[in-house]
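Re: duplicated header lines in exported structure tokens

Our pipeline writes sequence and tokens for each protein into one text file. With two proteins the header for the second block appears twice in some exports. Here is an export where it did not happen, for reference. First protein block:
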Amino acid sequence: MSVSDQDLEEALGIAAKIVDLYGYTYWPIFERLETELTERSKRRSRVMARLSQSRPVRGRPTKDPRPARRLNGEGIENSQGN
């Protein structure tokens, strides 16, 4: 069974109330929940950053790997590349 971010957010809220009511004896629980949420967010951000580098963004033209054709002033392709 996996724990969702929403589950962790709820648990963090409960842990904050417990620390407030009963003292810092329960601080390690609060800190562990907070750390887990932060680490999950960092991991997601790092993966998304890497993915955005390796694939084109929607709506952005990609560079065509074929060499560009050169046209002379009349719009006719020049076979010599001039």
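Second protein block, exported in the same file:
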Amino acid sequence: MDWVHAIVMGLLCGGAYWAVRSMGWFENRSKVQQALIFFPIIFIVVLILNLIWPSA
């Protein structure tokens, strides 16, 4: 995997996590509910990044 691609992916995932937390979607939710909200968002972010900029 290209190092720049990995760094950009990490920054985008961190940005998505920050955005979800700042919108308050995790308030008063269990860890399972938080995961059910967060993992599809991360999947979409990674999917869009890899469609725009394939690593191989």
